[in-house]
Specification:
heterodimer, A: about 150 residues, mainly beta, six-stranded antiparallel beta sheet, B: about 240 residues, eight-stranded antiparallel β-barrel, about 15% helix, about 55% strand, elongated
Chain lengths: ~150, ~240
């Protein structure tokens, strides 16, 4: 057979490729995206030298006496239209209530979904917080600062 | 999986074993217009016949891998022009219920590839054998459900799942292919292709989910490899 040499080489290559293909053709199913979606809050014109933040109703602390914090990220609830946080600063605790809407957003098959939010209004107590200004109502992944908090001090 | 590879290797070896020995064109022409039920075309003829092929590899592979939960069928047609060029049309259909982890893609759709192969072997009227390289442009339309998609909340621990039902999507891609086709006996052909596919439609439509699997392309990714093992008939 004149072309037998060609075909033998091709068969060898094809078997290698087939073996590789059978093993490797399914995509990696691990999620490598950052799915954190939360309200980004900043202390106006300064930083928090020490702050503790916890979601009201959550078991974990978001920031535990964290030092020199420029921005805090406050994750909103997936299934409710309001989320509350306790912010402890200089020995005084303020409660922050964020009213919001939420919309499901598909990320990928590997990562699943996340929520995108729209801030409707913000309410707070005034122990150490003077005012809170909403600068961006849309809350999504890779978002920018949403709230500016002004301290009384 | 090993069984699939074993069957494939047997098929490839069969292609070799039964491939038609090369006979000089002059001898073939002297013997008449038809040899082994194969029409011999004049060298100068533009049209040199048509091949209809059925893919076996993907049908068997997906049936075996997903235990019958995934079916894919593909047929191809190419026209031989000037013993060198093979304009090609490939049509297929896939249906399945598969997914990574708990998420499930349940969909069905059809696809079409058009392209051109070039035969790298020496021109010959007496044999339909070809060492082919070519390109394809493919498109697929599918209707699908994506169910049990997780939404995990590591802080509030409000983990939920959601489903996207009755979605439609069209995808497009390009392919570079290489392979061979061999005249096994009479008009019976066998051959295989390796394909490197590049997806063009990478963006999501708003917040709509993208499917896990694209008929004709494979698992959704930027690039994907594909293999075909064809059995066909020369007309």
């Amino acid at each position: 057979m004149k072309h037998a040499g060609y075909y033998n080489i091709l068969v060898s290559i094809s078997l290698c490729v087939c073996s590789w293909g059978c093993i490797g053709c399914q995509p990696d199913t691990s999620c490598r995206e950052n799915l954190t979606t939360g309200v980004i809050g900043e202390l106006y014109e300064t930083i928090w030298d020490s702050i503790t933040v916890q979601g009201i109703g959550a078991t974990d602390t978001l920031y535990n006496n964290a030092k020199n914090v420029k921005k805090i990220v406050l994750p909103l609830r997936n299934t409710q239209d309001s989320t509350q946080f306790a912010l402890l600063y200089h020995g005084q605790t303020d409660t922050l209530t964020i009213l919001h809407t939420y919309t499901q957003a598909f990320v990928s098959v590997e990562c699943g979904c996340t929520n995108e939010y729209e801030i409707l209004s913000v309410h707070h107590t005034t122990h150490w917080t003077d005012t809170i200004e909403i600068v961006e109502t849309a809350v999504h992944r890779h978002g920018s600062t949403n709230l500016y908090l002004k301290s009384k001090k | 999986m090993r069984r699939v590879l074993y069957i494939l290797s047997l098929l490839l070896c069969t292609t070799l074993a039964y491939s038609k020995p090369h006979v000089p064109d002059s001898v073939m022409r002297k013997s008449g217009l038809y040899v082994d039920h194969m029409k011999i075309y004049n060298d100068s003829a533009i049209y040199q016949g048509i091949n209809l092929k059925l893919d076996l590899f993907n049908t068997v592979f997906y049936l075996a891998k997903y235990e019958g939960k995934m079916q894919t069928y593909e047929m191809a047609m190419n026209v031989r022009l000037k013993q060198r060029f093979f304009p090609t049309l490939e049509l297929g259909y896939a249906k399945g219920e598969i997914g990574p982890g708990s998420t499930l893609w349940n969909g069905q759709g059809g696809w079409a590839n058009v392209g051109l192969d070039i035969n790298g072997l020496k021109k010959s009227a007496s044999t339909q054998n070809g060492l082919l390289v070519g390109i394809r442009v493919g498109t697929a339309v599918q209707r699908y459900d994506l169910t049990n998609v997780p939404m995990n909340d590591p802080y509030w621990h409000e983990n939920t799942t959601t489903s996207f039902i009755d979605r439609w999507r069209t995808d497009c891609w390009g392919e570079v292919v290489a392979g061979c086709q061999v005249q096994v006996y009479g008009a019976l052909m066998m051959g295989w292709y390796i394909r490197l596919k590049m997806l063009f439609t990478r963006k999501m439509n708003g917040t709509d989910p993208v499917p896990y699997y694209i008929p004709g392309f494979g698992y959704r990714d930027m690039t994907q490899w594909g293999i075909n093992y064809y059995i066909g008939w020369k007309f």
